[in-house]
Amino acid sequence: MIKKLLSVILVGVFALAMLSGCGKKQDLTPILGDWIYEQNDTIYTNGDPGDFFTEVAMVLVRADGTFSAHWTFEDYDHEGIVKIEYEEYSDGSKVPMYSFYENGNEFWFSCPCEQEDPDIFVIGQEGLERLTRNMGQG
Predict the structure, then answer these.
(1) Phi-psi region for residue 48, left (φ > 0), alpha (ψ -120 to 50) or beta?
(2) Are 17 and 23 spatial neighbours (Cβ–Cβ below 8 Å)?
């Protein structure tokens, strides 16, 4: 009787954890495709960056977890991998991040998996860099 009760309680706790997102599986689907890597080249206005972004590179994220980037104004290409990692904050909360690594192990940048706009992934807390979905490609 006690074993059965404990079993029901454990199943209930597991179900609550799944509903709250604790066990939610993250994947690369939202970030797959063609992106424009942009940098904000304006001065802060009242503490906020302006809305003027310059295209710096074209980035392709593939389903196998690899990416390639071609720099717009330089003859420079590179490739790497995208991993899902968790950034832990001082309060103990963890946020899933898409982390980009050049050549497999050199950190390039990361951005939170969950964004307000699914077509814009803000890089860093200041919002001075971002990936914008390339709507011009089919």
Answers:
(1) beta
(2) yes
Rounded to the nearest integer, the mean pLDDT of the chain is 79
Q: What is the pTM of this model?
A: 0.73
Which residue segment(s) compose the domain that 73 sits in? Answer: 26-133
Residue at 15 is within a domain: no
Q: Tell me how far apart the alpha carbons of residues 111 and 31 are, in angstroms, rounded to a whole number.
A: 10
Task: Tell me if 21 is assigned to some domain.
Answer: no
User: Which structure tokens are listed for 117?
Assistant: 């706009």
Query: In which residue are the tokens 């599986």 written?
Result: 25
Q: Is the pLDDT of residue 13 over 50?
A: no
- Residue 123's beta-bridge partner residues? 129
What CATH number has the domain bearing residue 80? 2.40.128
Which regions of the chain does DSSP assign to beta strands (E)?
A: 33-40, 53-61, 66-71, 77-88, 94-102, 106-112, 120-123, 129-133
Asked, for residue 8, whether it belongs to a domain, the answer is no
Kindly give the residue spans of alpha helices, DSSP state H, lying in the chain: 2-19
Contact 34, 59 (CB under 8 A): yes
* Number of domains within the chain: 1
20 inside domain = no
